[in-house]
Structure formats: structure tokens, C-alpha cells
Amino acid sequence: MLATLLAARPRFAAAAARFRSAAAAETWYVGGRSHRNATSVPLSALFDKLDRGLTGICLYGLAPPKLATDPERLREVAAQQVARLRLLAPDGLVVYDIQDEPGRGEQARPFPFLPTIDPEVYAHNALAELAIPKIVYRCVGAQPREVFSSWLDSLRGADRHLSVLVGAPRGRSQVPALPLADAYALARAAPNLMLGGIAIAERHVAKEDEHQRMLAKQDAGCRFFITQSVYDAASTKSLISDYALSLESSGRAPVPLVLTFSPCGSTRTLEFMKWLGISFPRWLENELRHSTDTLARSIDLCESVFTDVEDYARQKRLPVGINVESVSIRKAEVEASVELYRRLSSRLGR
Amino acid sequence: MLATLLAARPRFAAAAARFRSAAAAETWYVGGRSHRNATSVPLSALFDKLDRGLTGICLYGLAPPKLATDPERLREVAAQQVARLRLLAPDGLVVYDIQDEPGRGEQARPFPFLPTIDPEVYAHNALAELAIPKIVYRCVGAQPREVFSSWLDSLRGADRHLSVLVGAPRGRSQVPALPLADAYALARAAPNLMLGGIAIAERHVAKEDEHQRMLAKQDAGCRFFITQSVYDAASTKSLISDYALSLESSGRAPVPLVLTFSPCGSTRTLEFMKWLGISFPRWLENELRHSTDTLARSIDLCESVFTDVEDYARQKRLPVGINVESVSIRKAEVEASVELYRRLSSRLGR
Asked: Whole-angstrom Cα distance, residue B260 to residue B90?
């Protein structure tokens, strides 16, 4: 797979150039209204919120299609996603880097792992015509140092670029893997690269040090955080609380915390989300398992979890945003993610 | 201590008689208004709610004074409590049975254990003039079978009587102690005794079987449940969820679940509550520890926890009530419990 990714990389610069020129001239037609989409508007909206550490960042997240997808189907999928995202008009698009994680728990993966198209390539090539900033995840622990360094080199002279660096996936001890701290240190050489980090409330429950990791990542250059899917309001509020207290005691300013939400339309999706490490309070899991309409119930529950967490973050004066995704590619769940995005973004004044 | 309690028991029948006659003629003056307090009114209010399994039971809870309290001080304390409770006019008064629990956790008890006056004696003797039903806790695991049986005998021919039976305290293996199941079986011989049980959400987090214990207690005759202090909304909702699901699947009706709330005015009280087994989500514990007014913050938090849990119980069509107590005898904390009782009971339409 690595060979394929490296082979695909040279397309990136060309894709980025196309992306800029296409976006600059683009006009969006949404619901019969014409939205002149000068690139500077949505791009600057996200960068402005990040630069100023504002609340209200609204993102949509997706994983790239499987590597084995045939080219025609790939074009269809990308076209659908572009159309959907133009309607939603989020501040930015998150593209995940899906890695196999054989070491995750004792349980078998509920869905088989299939490698995906490289997220950078998918974001900046297949979705090039979508003129919104892309925040691309990069699993630095899954690649050699040289790959990361040459990627940084490729960014020289480019526009501002957004990435979320992620450590080694569980159970994968690739040698020579790049430690996350080393990746942050190397990334300082790319001043136009704006970095985000992941923040995991579930990890905070067990170790009570996730807020310290966040501060360390902030010191290493992180300008925002993205959580995994939030279904457990209490653990997320606990992380927010400890983060806010440690900012206060160290006299530092917060960076935006982007809360991820994903609909859950079936017990199979639920099992997959649990396997991914997402925690569900028992009552909430019962609600999903025993609902006559799991999907509708899940987006209602996501909305109330968001309301609870957002209210608490506001009390703590922490800027929050949203990132809505579907962990499933089932049409109903993807459509529910669109509905959920609309509800949550409207709660953030969009 | 046991000898003292047994010596005190004969006073119970006389106290009960006094209690009935005093209550029958009593008039309450609350805020300048005269409330004719025919015994039947408040007594029947609670029994009516219990008999019909209604929502909205409002209780106030207290522990008896220490056994070493001198008689004059004891009269003062009882008079203050009577005055306070007349103003509050709850449906009933809960009187706890405080036992030493050397086996609770690894940590030392934050406050030293001192034996208290027997709760039956305190409720029906010292507080005899308070004409509301008393729900008296009885730790059956801490006494021989004969003591329990003779207490049941003493109830023959008396009015309806309310008690919450509790098993052996941790770390106390008194031989021959009475198992809780045996106590329930013996209590069937006292038809005028209405029993409640304890329901502990924190135990449900660890074992996920507290709802089954509740059903078994219901089968054994429990007509209501009282929780320990609720600061963890999620675990309480999880217990409610599993209880509601198991009622539905077994075709049984719920009994009222009385949710206990206690203000927390200091980190010392917080440590004591944690030692008692009360769980605090980390964010909520942070709020208490870092507030400039811990006591006021705690009653705000209790109110929001109650609102969350009560809303969920309503969705599940479970009748809930409240029981407000102060685990501390500090004046400020006792006064805060009065304020908290007012707020929560008004949310239940009082």
C-alpha cells in the first residue's frame, strides 16, 4: 500500500493547483440561490476562526473510499460528496486516515479492514473542486520519517495547509515508525502548515492526563483539537473541566475544541463505534438498542449531548466547534449525518 | 451499644402512642398561615402516593444524634428539627440507621464513627410530636434474628409503619447476623409494615445487576426505593433505564424511586460522601473543589442533576420522588438542605 501512496503523492501538487484555480472561479447554486464562492470567503472563515481561537467552527468529516474502488465508481462517490458538501457549506472538510488496528481490544473488528485511498490524495485531488479547506489526518506512526519529511518539503511555497497528526495505531509497531513528538518537531519547519491534534475524553477517564497531552500538543504547535465521536457527555465535560483548569493555572489561552458527532443507525454501527473506542453511557446504549428508530433516536441524543457539552464549555469560556461524520457508508446514516450537521451548526448560529 | 438500643426499645410503644395523640390535635403555623394538621392528611398523602405508585413523593432525611448527646442538648436538637420540618412539611421523614463500616474501602473514615441513638427510638420518641410519617432505616445485618422478630411483634395492632431494610454493613460479620432475604421473609408476618429498599446506582455501574436486585426486593415486598445521594446523573439514568426495561419485559409495574440529594459545602464533606460510596463525575468534583462558594454551587448542581434524571424518568414513565438530607451537621449545610428541598419539591409541583 505504501508504494501506491508514494506513487500517488506527486499528483498532490498538481491537484492543489487545480483546487486553487477551480475554487477561485466557482459559483455555487444552492436551493435556487446563487452563492458566489470566492475562495477567500470559506477559506478565510476557517482560518480566521482558528487564528482568533473562536467558537463555532463547523466541519464535516469523511473517510476516503477503499483503495480497491474502481475509477468510475470513485468519480461518482466524489461527485456525490462534493454535491452534498456544497449544500452543507461547512467551514472545512475533515478527511480521515484509516489504519488497521489489530491491537484494539480483544474483540474482532466488526467490519473487515480494507485500505483506503491516501487521505491527502483524496482530499486534494478527488475533491479538488470542493473549494473549502481540507483538514487531513495523517497517521505519522504508520510511516517512516522520510515519508513525513518529504511531505513537509512538498508543502513549501504552498498555501496554508491543515493537518491533524495522529500517533501509531494500536498493535502496529512499524519500524522505523515516527514518534508523534518527532513529527511535531519536524513540522515546525513548515510554517504554512497549521496543525490540529486529537483529544480523546475516553482516554481521560482511564488516565486523567488527556488535558496534559493537549497542553503538550499545544506547545508543540497544535492550533485546534478534534475529539472522537462524543456520546458520553460526562467524560467530555470532565476533559473540558481539566483542560480549562490547567489553562487557567498556567496562564495559557485555549484553542478551539471541535466535538465530533456521528449518527448510529443500527446495533452493528453501535458495535463498530464501541470497537473504535467510543464510550456510550449504559442508558444511552439502551436507548439506541431498544428504539424503534435507532437512527432518529441517535441524532436526537447527539443533539442533546452537544447541547449539554456546549453549554458547559461556554461556562468555561472554551471555544468549541463541531465535526459531523458518518462512520457507516449506508445511505440512511450518511443522510442522517447531514441532518445532524444542520441541527448542530444551527445551534452554533449557522 | 446493642444493649443500650434494646433497653431503649420499650419506650417505642409509648412514644408511638404519644406521637398519634399529639399529631391528631396539632395545628401548624407556617409563614403566618394556619395549617390544620389532622394526622390523616399528611399521613394519607404519603401512603396514598405509595399505594398508587405515584410520582412526587417529597421526603427529608436525617440521622439521629449521637448516643452520647446529653439529654438537654438532645431536646434542643429535636426541637430544632421539629420546627424545621414543620416549615418544610415533607410527605415523610427518613431516619437513617448509621452503622460503623470498617470494611468500606481502603481509606480511613474522614469523620470518626460515633454510635447514634436508635433510629426507631429517635423517630417515634424524640420526634413524636412531628405528625408526619417516619420512614426508619433498619440495618438488619447488624442485629440478631431475635431482635428483628421482636420488633415485628411490637408492630402488631399498630398503625401502618414504614421501614427501609438494609443489609449488613461492609466489614461487619456479626454472627448470627440476619440476611436481608430472611428479614424480608419474616416481615411478611407484619402486614401493617410497609417496606422500602435501597437502590444504588454506583453498584449498578460495577455489576450491572442493581435493577435485578430491585425486582427481587419488589417481589419480597418493597413498595418503594430510596437511592443514596445522587451526583452522577448518568449512572442513575442507567439504573432507571435497566429497571424500566426489565419491568417492561416482565410485565410488572414500577414502584416509586425516591432520589436522595445532599448539599456539599466543603472538600471535607466531599471526601466523606466519596467515602460513603457516592460517585462524582470528575467535572462536577472539579466544580465543587474550585468554586468560590462550594455550598451554593452544590445545590445548583443537585438541581440540574435532578432535572436531568427526573426528565429521563418521566420519559420512562417511572414515578420518582425526592429525599433531601445533609450528611453534615454544620448549620450552613443543614440550611442549604432546606433550600435544596424547597427547590426540588417545587419542581415536583409542591
From this structure: 14
Quote the ipTM score.
0.86
Indicate whether this model's pTM tops 0.90. no
Distance CA A9, CA A94 (A): 19
DSSP 8-class letter at B124: I
pLDDT for B175 beyond 90: no
Q: How far are the Cα atoms of A101, B301, B307 from residue B335, in angstroms, in the given order?
A: 55, 16, 21
Tell me B116's DSSP state: B
DSSP A39-55: THHHHHHHHHHHHHT-S
Residue at B128: amino acid letter: A
Suggest the residue from A243, A282, A285 to mutate for an interface test with chain B (most B CBs closer than 10 A).
A282
Structure confidence at residue A142 (pLDDT): 81
> Is A242 within 8 Å of B282 when comparing Cβ atoms?
yes
Query: Residue A172: which pLDDT band, with cuts at 50, 70 and 90?
Result: low
- Mean pLDDT rounded to a whole number for chain B: 87
Percent of chain B with pLDDT over 70: 85
Contact (CB, 8 A) for A336 and A298: yes
Beta bridge partners of A166: A139
Q: How confident is the model at residue A159 (pLDDT cuts 50, 70, 90)?
A: confident
Q: Is B286 on the interface with A (CB under 8 A)?
A: yes
pLDDT tens-digit series, residues A93-128 = 999 999 887 767 667 788 788 899 999 999 999 999
**A 303-332 residues inside an 8 A Cβ radius of B:** 312
Taking CB atoms and an 8 Å limit, are B283 and A312 in contact across chains? yes
Report which of B136, B301, B159 is spatially closest to residue B230, judged by C-alpha positions: B301
CB contact A283 to B (< 8 Å): yes
A31 pLDDT tier (thresholds 50, 70, 90): very low
- Residue B110's pLDDT band, with cuts at 50, 70 and 90, is confident
Phi, psi of B11 (to 5 degrees): -70, -15
H/E segment holding residue B320: strand B320-325
Amino acid at B132: I
Query: Residue A241: closest CA among chain B residues belongs to which residue?
Result: B283
Interface A–B counts its CB contacts (< 8 A) at 46
Task: Band the pLDDT of B9: cuts 50, 70, 90.
Answer: very low
Q: How far apart are CA B338 and CA B328, in angstroms?
A: 13
Q: Which of B283, B316, B318 to mutate to test the interface with A (most CBs of A within 10 A)?
A: B283
Residues B237-258: tens digit of each pLDDT: 999 999 999 999 999 999 999 9
Torsion region of B125: left, alpha or beta (phi above 0 gives left; psi -120 to 50 gives alpha)? alpha
Q: Cβ–Cβ of A234/B283 closer than 8 Å?
A: yes
Q: What pLDDT shows up at residue A35?
A: 36
User: B282–A208: do the CB atoms touch at under 8 Å?
Assistant: yes
Most A CBs within 10 A among B282, B285, B288, B289, hence the mutation to make, goes to B282
Burial of A5 (0-12, 13-18, 19+ CB in 10 A): middle
For residue A282, the distance in angstroms to the closest alpha carbon of chain B comes to 5
Q: Are B238 and A282 within 8 A, CB to CB?
A: yes
Cis peptide before B176 (omega within 30 of 0): yes
Q: Is residue B245 within 8 angstroms of chain A, CB to CB? A: yes
> Is A312 close to B242, i.e. CB distance below 8 A?
no
What's the gap in Å between the CA of A234 and the closest CA on chain B? 7
Joined grid coordinates for residue A118: 491516501
With CB atoms and an 8 Å threshold, state whether B286 touches A238: yes
